[in-house]
Amino acid sequence: MSIRMLPYYLRLATKSLLATPGLTLLTLVALGLGIAVPTASLSIRHVFGQDPFPEKSDRLFNVRLDNWETESEFFGPAGEPPKHITYQDMVRVRELTPEIPSTGIGAASIFLFPPDESLRPYQVLTRLCHSDFFSMFNAPFTYGDAWSEESDRNPDHVAVLSHEGNQKLFGGQDSVGKKIRLGEQEFEVVGVLAPWRPTPQIYDTVNNPYGTVREIFVPFEHVLDDALGLQRATSDDAFGSRPQGGTLRETYMAWELNWIQFWAELAPSELALYRQTVDDYSLAQKELGRFPRPLNNRVQPLMGWLEEQAIQRGAGPGTDALVIVSVLFLLVCCLNLTGLLLAKFLARSGILGIHRALGAPMRSIFMQRLVECVLVATAGGVLGAILAGGALRLLDQTAPDRFLRPGIFSLDSYSLVAALVLALGAGLLSGVYPAWRACRIAPAIQLKVQ
Amino acid sequence: MKHSIHIGPLLRSMMRNKTRVLLLTVEIAVTVAVALNCSAMILQQLEVLRRDTGIAENELIGVEVRPWAADYQDFQYRQRIAREDLAAIRAMPGVRNATIINTFPLQGGGSSSLAGPLGSPREEWIRTPVYSADPQVFDTLGLEIVEGRGFRETDIPTEPGPYIANVVVTRDFADALFPEGNAIGQSIDTGGGEEYPDVIVGIVGHMFTPYGGGPMETRITFFPRLPSSTQRSQYLVRAEPGAVDQVYASLTQTFVNVEPRRAVALRTMDEIKAGGYIQNNLMVDIYTVVVLLLLFVTALGIFGITAYSVTQRTKQIGTRRALGAPKQAILHYFLAESTLVSLIGLGLGLIGAYGLNVLLVNHAGAPKLDPVLVLVGSLSLWMLGLLATWAPAQRASRLSPALATRTV
């Protein structure tokens, strides 16, 4: 088709579509729905299934050590090590690999006394982590910065506030250097995060996969402070009993209580050595009478860990099923479209016959029909995108804030491109056969019945 | 019947319109395959949502209390406040009963332990969700003691630390531990060993607590205790039928009257449950919309294609009418054709449905297809086909022979 003919074909196509408004409307609705359903489900999958942290997902590893006894089972799938590790193993593995950025992830509750004394004290869930946490997970800072490794060790009375925490306690102003009281002790704010809600919350999918970021982050070691009284608030698995009588440090360093998710950031070249170090550590612990089971440790890439967690949460037939179903839905719509276009083109056999008789080549009849298909497809794609956007917004409003970030489902550029590509593909696929049939109309028989 | 349908002409006509028949059958086949599988997934989730939990869901309010006073470090102070709270709630108008409990049922997950008959090898122990609560827990939840007894005030320990507990278990758990049915009076080990065994004193009927699937969800153990920590306490309040709103409105004040130095948060059991089942609810909504849209689109397609075929066959219909065929015959002809196409489509669709089902079962955790669902689904789709054919077929039957044959 020479490009000169395109405007003419477009005019013809518009005219032909407007000539049968009922049929055109039917076609548009059918195609629009056919585009809307897969577009919406691709967006949903985009939210749940895509790599949530593409910048670093290949370098972040969830580390698990199987310290469990042989007599009992923990709550989790057979063959896998427990999803958490013990405090003592976290500390010793960190000591063995001082140059590797790593962080424990824990949570503990404590009473927070707001600086504004007119506000009532409330119990707050603090995030226990190490200084590497913030750089490992690219936590964005508005004011100040993370605490230092030295603050991890001492541990210093320092804290990082989330955006929400800073809004609540300091009205959003720069609070670096200000004090907050946790229990009976004062903590100095060293950093304030920008609004941040990773979805899922990749570092803690066990306890809080879709919730909000904790208000306040403090160095992990504070959990050992008998005087401070941080109370663990994570799911856990334990065997044996809690060692009695000692300080918290002595207790945690002897207790087989799995409650910490542990993360390491590794370059590809460091991975093998790190795995070896973890396994060697387990073997050394065997010598001491711990780790009675066969060696079963995991240094698992972020994505593998997230998939396993999603399955364990019992997400049921997940987004994969939805995508399969949506593609078949689009197929039904394409078949529909083929039927409707066939009806439309062949209904005008008479006119096409005249065109052919007057010398229009088959190719130009075919191209004219295809242009018509593309026009319908584009309109259907736009309609589909609008419908998908509406459906996603509705879904967004249905899901409660506590579980899903508001605005998590929306018509992003990804969905828009998906809609347009699907529409054009569907339009062409469905239109080729009807267009071919239309151009093969024999002029003689059509003219005979005029 | 004067104008019986002859299958011969019907088949010959269909063979002459292969494209139309092919489009319709494939469309119906894919629709059947998808709709059946989606319906199976919806039904699976509905079953989870409607599962009998055994508890009086509609009459319960959950209360979460977070104290900050230093007094709460003291075990005896906490126990005293818990008793005062319970007495105050039970005295409220519209309240049937109340209990203090370690974790809310139906919130999804909770606390669990391994347990077995005392002295049995640990490898054979089975997992049980664990609730700790005061003696009124059974009436509050709406559970009935079917054997033995419930808790007494004397079952509640007066000091913190391990104790020999008289426990109450669900029928399912009793049967799993002691298949001979002699659970009452038996000692079990939930981790306390020989020193601190637990004794089964009572059995309650069915209770279900969502806990990631598996048989443990109905194998439940109750410990007698007033569970409260320095951090928080949780209460369940059962209102008289119809009095939930009234109780909800004045509950916070009741707690503040007993001890003001604490934060009080209320949630109805429906809200607690909605949180535990959020994913199931979302799935039901999404798949329902998809199935309805799919049926709509397919009906639209059948309608469109039939309408076109009527236009195309105007002359043929006119000729038949002119030769004496009654309107009914034309109508029946189209309906019979629709049925035939539906049958072929359904046949192909059932093969497709089972194929798709294998894929979804293996890759997406979908349930297997239920034969009843397949039967009902197939009949519904056939009806849908007839319904979508009706209007164009009616129009065909009303064609005036004179007009329709004008250009023959």
Largest interface: A-B, 62 and 65 residues
The poorly predicted ranges of chain B are none
| SS-derived structural category of chain A | alpha+beta
How is the main sheet of chain A built? 6 strands, mixed, barrel
Instruction: Quickly count the helices of chain A.
Output: 14
Give a count of the beta strands of chain A, DSSP E runs of length 2 or more.
13
Radius of gyration of chain B, rounded?
Answer: 32 Å
According to DSSP, the number of beta strands of chain B is 11
The class by helix and strand makeup of chain B works out as alpha+beta
DSSP strand content of chain B: 15-25%
Order of helices and strands of chain A: HHEHEEHEHEHEEEEEHEEHEHHHHHH
Order of helices and strands of chain B: HHEHEEEHEEHEEEEHEHHHHHH
Radius of gyration of chain A: 31 Å
Shape estimate of chain A: elongated
User: What's the domain count of chain A?
Assistant: 2
Can you give the helix content of chain B as a percent range?
40-55%
Oligomer: heterodimer
User: How much of the residues of chain A is beta strand, in percent?
Assistant: 5-15%
Q: How many structural domains does the protein architecture of chain B include?
A: 2
Order the strands across the largest sheet of chain A as they lie in space: 2-3-8-5-7-6
Protein architecture, described:
The complex is a heterodimer of chains A (450) and B (408). Helix content of chain A is 48%, strand content 14%. Chain A contains 14 helices and 13 strands. Chain A has a six-stranded mixed beta barrel with strand order 2-3-8-5-7-6. A two-stranded antiparallel sheet of chain A has the order 10-11. In chain A, helix 1 crosses helix 12 (362-398), helix 2 packs antiparallel against helix 10 (319-347) and helix 2 (21-49) packs across helix 12. The longest helix of chain A has 37 residues, at 362-398. The model of chain A has no long low-confidence stretch (mean pLDDT 86). With 408 residues, chain B is of the alpha+beta class. Chain B has two domains: 7-51 and 279-404, no CATH class; 57-271, no CATH class. Helix content of chain B is 51%, strand content 16%. In chain B, the strands form two sheets. A six-stranded mixed β-barrel of chain B has the order 3-4-9-6-8-7. Chain B has a four-stranded antiparallel beta sheet with strand order 2-10-1-11. In chain B, a hairpin with an 8-residue loop joins strand 3 (112-117) and strand 4. In chain B, helix 2 (18-50) runs antiparallel to helix 8 and helix 2 crosses helix 11. The longest helix of chain B has 38 residues, at 327-364. The mean pLDDT of chain B is 88. Chains A and B meet through helix 2, helix 10 and helix 12 of A and helix 2, helix 8 and helix 10 of B.
